[in-house]
Write a structure and sequence with these properties.
By secondary structure, this protein is α+β, with helices and mostly antiparallel strands. It has two domains: about 90 residues, Elongation Factor Tu (Ef-tu), domain 3 (Beta Barrel), CATH 2.40.30; about 140 residues, Threonyl-trna Synthetase, Chain A, domain 2 (Threonyl-tRNA Synthetase, Chain A, domain 2, 2-Layer Sandwich), CATH 3.30.980. The protein is built from three helices and 15 strands. It has a six-stranded antiparallel β-barrel.
Length: about 240
């Protein structure tokens, strides 16, 4: 089982780990712990490098989750290190921090929509500094979207702290409205739930990485909106 360092410290940029498994056919390395986010919940996987003690640098092509393990697929053609090798991981921080800002912006949008309109999320996706989120709305128009944009930027300026807790499943599910998505994406078998809270605005189950304060997000612009069905409306955002 890979220890997930990013779950408790999204600001961690470098780390050391021990190589516990190697798959030469896919050039995949499994570590005992990692700060690389493997993707999920609409947030893309991290990029970066793994460096061996002899100075060999392995660029990450992909990071993915396989059960309780995180798989690090490396590019290049350098010979892979043997099991037991200590490696130093370094996250491509500019990209990761942009994704952290974007993910928190998506939670601000979700929190405002839930608080003011009680609309559930039906889907979402993001890239660095831009994303989209779908909600259960029957109608969506320009005036409404402009009101939403003003409201989410007020929450940015409110400088609300963002915190993470990992709770036993039974305790987590006592939180009202823990799941904001139309479909509950939490597997039945998990015993602990990671909860992300924007103080005074949003509290929900989430596995991704976030900034520590809403002010770090910066100005959020609503760049477009679309109808994707009778009760499915899409809002696009971008960060400045």
């Amino acid at each position: 089982m890979t220890r997930l360092l990013y779950q408790t410290d999204s600001a961690l940029q470098t780390f050391t780990a021990t190589l516990v498994a190697v798959d030469p056919a896919t050039r995949t390395l499994t570590l005992d712990q990692t700060a690389f986010y493997p993707g999920g919940g609409g947030q893309p996987h991290d990029l970066g490098t793994l460096t061996a003690p002899d100075g060999t640098i392995y660029p990450l092509a992909k990071v993915s989750k396989a059960g309780a393990e995180v798989l690090h697929t490396v590019g290049g053609d350098a010979p892979l290190p043997p099991v037991g090798t200590p490696l130093t991981g370094a996250i491509e921080w500019t990209r990761r921090y942009a994704l952290m800002r974007t993910h928190t912006a998506m939670h601000i949008l979700c929190g405002v929509i839930w608080r003011d309109y009680a609309a559930q999320v039906t889907g979402g996706n993001m890239e660095p500094l831009k994303g989209r989120m779908d909600f259960e709305f029957e109608t969506l128009h320009g005036d409404f979207v402009r009101q939403v944009e003003a409201a989410i930027n007020r929450e940015v300026e409110a400088a609300r702290p963002v915190s993470v807790r990992i709770l036993p499943r039974a305790e987590a599910f006592q939180i009202p409205d823990l799941i904001r998505t139309k479909i509950n994406l939490l597997p039945e078998g998990i015993t602990e739930v990671r909860v992300v809270e924007i103080a005074g605005l949003d509290l929900q189950a989430d596995g991704g990485t976030h900034v520590a304060n809403t002010r770090e997000v910066g100005t959020i612009r609503v760049t477009d909106y679309q109808s994707k069905g009778k009760i499915n409306k899409r809002i696009y955002i971008a960060l400045e």
